Every structure is written in C-alpha cells, then in structure tokens.
Amino acid sequence: xxxxxxxxxxxxxxxxxxxxxxxxxxxxxxxxxxxxxxxxxxxxxxxxxxxxxxxxxxxxxxxxxxxxxxxxxxxxxxxxxxxxxxx
Length: 87
Hints:
mainly alpha
C-alpha cells in the first residue's frame, strides 16, 4: 500500500509541475510577436514530427501517445492566435 501512496504522490507532483510549465509556455507563445511565433510554429512542427516518430516506435502506452497528440494540437492552435497587444 505504501508504494501505491508514493506513486500517487509522485503523479500528483508531476501533474503540478506540468501545469506550471504549461502556464509558462502558453504565456511565452501568446506574448511573442507574430514573426517570431510563425518561426517557432515551423520549428515546433518539425520537432513534433520527430517526437511522434519516436513515440510510435517505442514501447509506450496509447494513452501517452493520445495525450501527446492532444497537447501538440492545443499548442499548435496557440501559434495561430493573435498576440494580446493586437487583440
């Protein structure tokens, strides 16, 4: 039972850290000037394709791949948003 409690606590810690990182990345993307955001979007697309190939060829859960695809889509949509200063 102790191992299950430790695993649950670690998962919660990871979730909290991930949410904080998500807030930082979202802030950075939406604060970027349009030209930089467009350049970053192209780079993001290249890197996500590499990561996707690695995930699809690794012994990994479908849940992980599904979550990855969801987040890639969500971050990709952020690149298309108008910057707050132009809102």
